[in-house]
Specification:
single chain, 170 residues, alpha+beta, Aminopeptidase, globular, GNAT family N-acetyltransferase, GNAT_dom, Acyl_CoA_acyltransferase
């Protein structure tokens, strides 16, 4: 099984829609994604990622043996945080628990640190998403603390955890 991240292609829209039309996945992501997630939604997202500034948005498809199974992105922050990126990711449910996401996180961190002036990459998974927290820990991220009552997801106030990975640790 070969895990790689690569630039998006418009032809990936159907695979993206298949992965993201899953409530279990969407329950662990920020709000605003349509459900069901259609191929057209995928094309719009991919077009936006392809037209974004490559020094601000580092967006990739996650592939296993050349099949798109998910998405990973690091997004540069602004103002005093301009050398910091927020990390977001997901993969299709049938690929959970196989070490794929950990490998994808390692690959994007290496890419961002080598291709930009970013010094810190952080992620804020929901505290209840223990699998995502494990991914980050296995990829070398440090747990910095719990952000109490930091979000409202599906009508519930939830905590989030803060993880970071520094260029000096890479």
């Amino acid at each position: 099984m070969i895990v790689k991240i690569r630039k998006w292609q418009l032809s990936d829209a159907a695979d993206l829609a298949a992965a993201l039309s899953n409530r279990k996945i969407q329950n662990n992501l920020r709000d605003g994604l349509p459900y069901p997630y259609t191929e057209q939604d995928g094309k719009e997202y991919i077009s936006a990622m392809l037209s974004s500034d490559e020094n601000e948005t580092f967006a990739f498809a996650i592939t296993v043996d050349n099949k798109v199974i998910g998405s990973i992105g690091a997004f540069r922050q602004g103002n005093i945080h301009k050398q910091t990126c927020e990390l977001g990711y997901y993969i299709a449910e049938e690929y959970w628990g196989k070490g794929i996401m950990t490998e994808a996180v390692k690959q994007i961190c290496e890419y961002v640190f080598n291709k930009s002036n970013i010094i810190r990459i952080y992620a804020e998974p929901f505290a209840y998403n223990t699998a995502s927290c494990r991914v980050l820990e296995k990829a070398g991220f440090q747990y910095e603390g719990t952000l109490r009552s930091n979000a409202v997801k599906n009508g519930k106030v939830v905590d989030m955890k803060m993880y970071s990975y520094l260029k000096t640790e890479a």
